[in-house]
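Input record, target 12 of the design panel.
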């Protein structure tokens, strides 16, 4: 992500996520690429909130959090 575009998706660290396939071992992902200024602003704001610990103040799991931000 930069101020021009963002690629949003997931990185599943599972056997299926790494390509191990079987009758019941499938992994489906959805990603998207955007250059829409409105979407970029929302994404950048959310990332800022995440890294500044704003979600930590309300999570109610501080007693089990291994690395508290706030």
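The sequence produced for target 12 reads:
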């Amino acid at each position: 992500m930069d101020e021009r575009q963002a690629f949003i998706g997931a990185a599943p660290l599972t056997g299926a996520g790494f390509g191990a396939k079987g009758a019941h071992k499938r992994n489906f992902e959805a990603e998207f690429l955007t250059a829409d200024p409105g979407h970029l602003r929302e994404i950048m704001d959310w990332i800022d909130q995440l890294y500044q610990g704003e979600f930590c103040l309300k999570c109610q799991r501080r007693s089990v959090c291994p690395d508290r931000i706030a």
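The chain has one helix and two strands.
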